[in-house]
Amino acid sequence: MTEHERYSRPEEDAGERLDRQWSELLQELRLAQTGTQILFAFLLSIAFQSAFQNADAFTHHVYAVTLIASALAVGLLLAPVSFHRIIYRHKLRDRMLPIASRMAVAGLAFLVLAMTGGVLLAIDVVVSRPVAILIAAVVLLWFVIFWYAVPTWVRRSTPNGTGE
To answer: At what angle do helices 57-87 and 14-46 cross, to 10 degrees?
Structure first.
């Protein structure tokens, strides 16, 4: 089965298929971008709180990793928009879509890390550190199961591998 056959519908031509796939990707990105940008802005403000400045090295390290993961998520989730703007009207959408899709998946992976780090930072304040780490690990596992394992299982269990 060719790439075209795998991702096309019988009633659409190649241009329509690319337009539909781009539209679907943009819808997915719109959902992820807003929350990621809010998380990033919130994380930026934490460093300027006096209580945070007095926190221990563990908290500062978790914060740094979380902030960087959040920034990378924002960058990757916005990258397809920039990519499209740069190649707009150059008839390269067929080359852009697979790359933009990989950017979105990578952005979501960094978002998972940022969300887990944010949970760890917040929970560490209200419970003991070992319990906070355990809760953050469970949250990470939850994301991995529902964002990656379940969709992968569904894709692999579908006869044509597309689910469409």
So the answer is: 150
